[in-house]
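Good morning,

Attaching, inline, the backbone tokens for the sequence recovery test we're adding to the shared suite. The designed sequence is right after.
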């Protein structure tokens, strides 16, 4: 039986050329220090490709170790004041909760906006904004329900009015859903899901406007500065321009070799093309699950659609295990079953999932 893989939201399948890319890294590494020239060439190309995927200039983009690190860098680069508020939602991945909860001993209040039917409503977020709002940190696509956030432009405008930072977690969107950086101060994504890259990278975008007023990163190193061997290096330092100053040390070069290949592939295929091709399959899957009587977490409506379709069930883990026994791979736990569709999926995968799930639920 051929495997039906529907778990990109947890682990994306790599592009085939990544295997050769990792071997090439090993060959370059085997040259010793002369190989570093190629390391940095690959790094530069990966940054350029990532910037193209995001629709920005390369100087606004950098790679850190993970999306979680990107959140921590942001949290530690803001000079917090007692009474400041951070707005998140109850649809956030734990990292986008923990990063802000740890600030409570500095007098920062975490404001959690509740979802309605699996999605956020603009009026519920807007009503929580005030002069104390320092940061708004929301996911473009919820890992939990798959709901797309359709009001980022309004959010950006409102954030400007109260002088708040707008941060977007694009981990469940980048490489699969269209996005715009307009009005976004800080955006980040992991590398190993919809971007189909290796582990060990967090792609970060910092707008030029926000970088100009952003405090120096709390953790800097030799990679954060343009020249480490200045005569006055024991007295002062100057950070690299743009987002590059956020990276303190040598990047994960093996992962950069790999993600360069997946970025090339995604740009060649086109995210808009993936979005159009996968849209009907996502709709078909959601309708099919609803038809089976599943308690849907993914809201109805094209404006909320992403690559994720999820439903709640008290026996989620058992359902996931039963699906896996029949070679259908989804994510199941925390009281929900989540399937996800990327460019390597087709109508047969949806049909197989619904067929096997019908048997299990019966």
């Amino acid at each position: 039986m051929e495997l039906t893989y529907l778990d990109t939201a947890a682990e994306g399948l790599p592009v085939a050329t990544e295997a050769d890319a990792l071997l090439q890294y090993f060959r370059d590494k085997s040259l010793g220090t002369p190989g570093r020239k190629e390391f940095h060439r690959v790094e530069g190309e990966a940054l350029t490709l990532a910037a193209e995927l995001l629709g920005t200039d390369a100087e606004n983009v950098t790679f850190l170790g993970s999306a979680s690190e990107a959140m921590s860098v942001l949290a530690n680069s803001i000079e917090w004041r007692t009474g400041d508020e951070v707005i998140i939602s109850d649809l956030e991945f734990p990292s986008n909760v923990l990063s802000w909860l740890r600030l409570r001993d500095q007098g920062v209040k975490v404001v959690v906006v509740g979802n309605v039917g699996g999605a956020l409503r603009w009026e519920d977020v807007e009503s929580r904004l005030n002069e104390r709002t320092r940061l708004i940190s929301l996911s473009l696509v919820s890992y939990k329900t798959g709901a797309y956030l359709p009001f980022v432009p309004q959010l950006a405008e409102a954030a400007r009015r109260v002088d708040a930072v707008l941060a977007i977690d694009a981990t469940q969107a980048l490489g699969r859903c269209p996005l715009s950086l307009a009005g976004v101060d800080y955006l980040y994504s992991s590398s190993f899901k919809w971007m189909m890259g290796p582990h060990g990278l967090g792609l970060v975008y910092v707008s030029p406007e926000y970088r100009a007023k952003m405090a120096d990163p709390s953790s800097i190193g030799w990679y954060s500065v343009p020249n480490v061997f200045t005569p006055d290096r024991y007295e002062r330092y100057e950070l690299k321009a743009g987002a590059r100053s956020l990276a303190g040390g040598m990047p994960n070069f093996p992962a950069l070799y790999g993600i360069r290949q997946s970025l090339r592939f995604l740009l060649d295929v086109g995210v808009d093309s993936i979005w159009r091709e996968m849209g009907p399959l996502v709709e078909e899957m959601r309708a099919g699950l609803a038809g089976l009587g599943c308690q849907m977490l993914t809201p109805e409506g094209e404006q909320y659609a992403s690559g994720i379709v999820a439903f709640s069930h008290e026996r989620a883990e058992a359902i996931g295990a039963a699906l896996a026994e029949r070679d259908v791979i989804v994510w199941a736990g925390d009281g929900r079953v989540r399937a996800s569709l990327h460019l390597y999926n087709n109508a047969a995968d949806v049909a197989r999932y619904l067929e096997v799930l019908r048997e299990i639920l019966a």
